[in-house]
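Dear support,

Our group has been running a series of protein-ligand predictions, and this particular one with glutathione is the one our PI (initials K.S.) wants archived with full inputs and outputs. We had some confusion internally about which version of the output was final, so please treat the block below as the authoritative record. The input we submitted was:
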Amino acid sequence: MADITIYIGNKNYSSWSLRAWLMLKQTGAPFESDVIPLYVPGSKETILKHSPSGKVPALRHGDVTVWDSLAIGEYLAETFPKAGLWPTASVARARARSVSAEMHSGFANLRRNLPMNLRRKPTPRPLTDEVTADVARVAALWRDCRQRFGSGGPFLFGAFGIADAMYAPVVSRLRSYAVPIDPDAAAYCDAIERHPPYREWAAAAKDEPMTVAEFEV
Ligand SMILES: N[C@@H](CCC(=O)N[C@@H](CS)C(=O)NCC(=O)O)C(=O)O
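Confirmed final output from the archive:
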């Protein structure tokens, strides 16, 4: 049994699980994934056996339990410093933390109106003004990170890190709902979609049998 287990929800719908799983993949450490089907009878009780918040993702590393995507990212960055989960330079790291926190606490309209659904055939959905404003803010912060800090690679701070993991589900939403975006944002979405761990997760999501009606909009 691996020393690390990540408890996650349905790969098709659980955007917070995808974030933490991508961070963990970036460490290169061996781990086991335990998928807990969400929003079915008994799922809350099962989650509570592994996550005191009653939500996924949660990480078990030996005797240590960490829950909540951003806390998991911080724990992994400390535990696996060579993984480069945060940028090395302090100004870039401060910016990466800011945009990651902004994702973690914000973009409620985008998240509510365009639920992650990796299996969805890309089809447009009418966007409210609030969702359009969220999309514009995301595209602006992506552009700023790429221009100022992204010269070393295709991701927000060059190499793939926590900030990219935090925004990967937004990429999936923009694609699933065929949201119009500018060429720079589209290039960043392409980079995420080419990232092998993202592809691995998306392929697994497509094979999942569980369906949650609430998220099939
Ligand atoms: N702030 C948390 C959010 C976690 C969250 O909302 N997880 C959802 C799945 S994406 C969940 O566990 N839902 C199950 C439930 O509430 O019963 C994080 O960043 O990890």
